[in-house]
Amino acid sequence: MPKIITQIADMQQYKKSLKSNDQMGFIPTMGALHAGHLSLIKESVAENEQTVVSIFVNPIQFGVNEDFTKYPRNIEKDIEILKGLKVDVVFAPQNEDIYPENFLSFVNVNKISNMYCGKVRKGHFKGVATIVLKMLNIAQADKLYLGEKDYQQIIIIEKMLADLNLNIKVVRCPIIREADGLAMSSRNMYLNKTERKNATCLYKSLLVAKDSYSKGVQSISRVKTQMVDVITKSNGIIEYIAFTDKDTLLKEKHLTENTRILLAVKFGNTRLIDNILV
Predict the structure, then answer these.
(1) What pTM was computed for the model?
(2) Phi then psi dihedrals of residue 272, to 5 deg
(3) What region, left, alpha or beta, does residue 60 occupy, with left being phi > 0 and alpha being psi -120 to 50 degrees?
(4) Residues recognised as catalytic
């Protein structure tokens, strides 16, 4: 049974109580845990003496008219899931403690936070960077476990940690998919039956791109046309398809072994993201 901590001071005291050489792995979540989260947790448990999972629906990473109020919350179910995973601590702070009335400080990773998802979701990554930094400072973790589904987020957090000279290792974990290829996400539960079936087109389109590159195609316009065709046939509304350098997120002129394709597509009111290294 993990220890449930809700107070910042108690989380800080817990860290102080550990042996000096105990390594702590940290997995930040907003709850609604699924197999993708569990893969991060299992990785941390295997590599560290201590594993801490945070559950906190972060209000400042949601924009106007986004799904903050309806975002799935069931902390009792989440804790029940965590019981069998050798998690040491569940850190579930209150909003008023994380963001007190006089809170004025935010983290903004310029340029790369304003592209792709950041271009559409204004201020989203400022909210993400701020809460991740706060959580890491509170827990004093040694390793941060992040899934590659949110690839832009990984690059932004890695850049933040490097720029601010924080000696915390980011452990990237592969995307966990459903049997039909859909990347696991807490937002998948918003999809109705038809939308859920159609949403498999995201991964299918990425595989089409990967297959084209493996056959020698380097033209981004050609591959993008193929991807658009796959997605629109499944009634997906494309927000963006970006062909980026896997390290810098800058747009590429043609496909290379370093190209990471990022995309965001809506089905009804549900926005889903995915990506692949060609």
Answers:
(1) 0.95
(2) -120, 150
(3) alpha
(4) 37
